[in-house]
Amino acid sequence: MQIGLFVTCLGDTLFPEAPKATVDVLERLGHEVHFPREQTCCGQLHLNSGYRDDALALARRFARIFAEYEAVVSPSSSCVGAVRELSPEIAPRVFELSEFLVERLGVEDVGAHFPHRVTYHPTCHSLRVTKVGDAPLRLLRAVRGLELVDLPEAAECCGFGGTFAVKNADTSGAMLADKCSAIMSTGAEVCTAVDGSCLMQIGGGLSRRQAGVRTMHLAEILAS
Amino acid sequence: MTSFPEAARLALGDTQLRDNLRNATTTIRDKRARAVAEVSDWEELREAGRAIKDDVMRRLDEYLLQFEESVQAAGGNVHWARDAAEANQIVLDVARSHGASEVVKVKSLTTDEIELNDALAAGGVNAIETDFAELILQLDGDWPSHILVPAIHRNRSEIRDLFLRTIARGRELSDEPSELAETARLYLREKFLEAKVGVSGANFGVAETGTVVVVESEGNGRMCTTLPPVLVTVVGIEKLVPTFGDLEVFLQLLPRSSTGERMNPYTSLWTGVTASDGPQEFHVVLLDNGRTRVLADEVGRQALHCIRCSACLNVCPVYVRTGGHAYGSVYPGPIGAILTPQLVGIEHAASLPFASSLCGACYEVCPVKIDIPAVLLHLRAEAEKSFAERAAMRALARVFARVRLYERAQRLARAGERPARHLPGPIARWTEVRDLRPLPKETFREWWSRERGA
User: Fold this and answer.
1) How far is the alpha carbon of A128 from chain B, nearest alpha carbon, in Å?
2) In the β-sheet with B240-241, what is the strand arrangement from edge to edge?
3) What superfamily in CATH does domain B41-289 come from?
């Protein structure tokens, strides 16, 4: 299948390891991955910050760039959710990575080996907007050597929320503190999720606490 | 009004407040989840609730006239109030016409919204709150921080100290809930028996029959609606339901969502006046106070569907940490963040639509399916933003619109990374409590070009 890779502007600029790992996993499964270079931002930043017109213009641009692909895959549930809302014309063909693997391709074992103790944080948008369900957990359970440990209060927001993290920095910090405590209580070496931006928040908090817990995008674990 | 981020900062520093809130909201949240899980057709019930409310908003003009007619036919008096001042004057006039210097009140958000107690006090009438939690707050000059549990920010030992100072009349008192309740009971019974006028809000008004419904847990509300010879009820115009049968839906949705109970303990329904039973004079005040303006907004109007269950507060990660006072509004939490800016005008509450991480937990539990995140986004678009922010977002939109500019911005970001870390602004706010990872050596697109060619 020819897949259009939607890397997201943050993934492209701040954490390229997640989209790189996405390429690895999809190619390992025998798919042809294309990277349309024209892509920038899907419009979510402007939508969530109250600039709807700008968001819609970016969404139209996005839909045009990805129009030719049978499937568009991204390592960000949040951006996929925004595309589904803003660009309904291509929405049915846009997938978050775990959802694409499990729901669309019917694959749970991608041949990964990752001998570490891992906890999974279900991000808000993967749970309630993109609704990926337990697809990430199914994939993690099939990874060789991986020990999956439950995260207490898993469904609670990490406090990122885009510009919320700076506009309401104190509240965001309080939410992050509780999320970090929950992660540290699991004894996990790695915290994973399907949204790089939430992992940036969580990783920043864990690093500040010198917690000794790394954050890794689900795609990176699946590619290992 | 203090902006939400500033008020939140103060609240977050209060560890006692955060403990009180965390304990109370976790308990109610778990209880709600169990009560909802028992109902096999919960999603259908939610959809029914949404559909009924949607119909009410579409035909509100007809239902209001029908309600007026039904109340009058049952021997009640109907008053129309455009705003808080008109509503307060109507209640004050009724109290004065009976020479009442004191009225007893049922817990009511609507009367808090119009600041009825202050207006009555200014007119020489003392309003006694009879809901246990509202009484606590009134005795302490405090104000509610939760829709359902107004004193959620207080704990029992704080309440014991307050009662010793105020209504215990020299009695010994421990912080046992039963002793605290008994103290309030002794004080309130006298008030119920003396009062000539009772004042209530309403959870529902039935257009078809003129019936008014108050849902409460203590029975103190029923004392107010049955003992005094005169009763005045202030109802927001959005509280109507078309038929008596519609209550079936809401009386299932509301208790399970709010207190996590299968059935509400005290559900009082009355229709006009009944000879030699209950109040012999009944007034309804139909309150607009900004609601018509909300109704005119196609996206925002769903905020009027709210049945005040407070489930959204208990699951909100922001509310649970900041408490209700930070919202600076009678309606706190996620519903307050969408209702208050619409009722009072967004220019008076511009920070509220941003007081959310858009996690969506509120929408998931709302018994009438108000899409709170969607309304938050809608209001964010309407809120006035700073010039600097608008300029930055406009520039960013231009950069995102052209890939050449975008790629250049990526290169500039790398060049400017070190100096930017020392400037005030978003990065400084970020690094107050988190580390910021250095930018990667190459962007994804640079890696792709190197590996795969252009």
Assistant:
1) 6
2) B240-241, B204-206, B211-216, B266-271
3) NagB/RpiA/CoA transferase-like (3.40.50.10420)
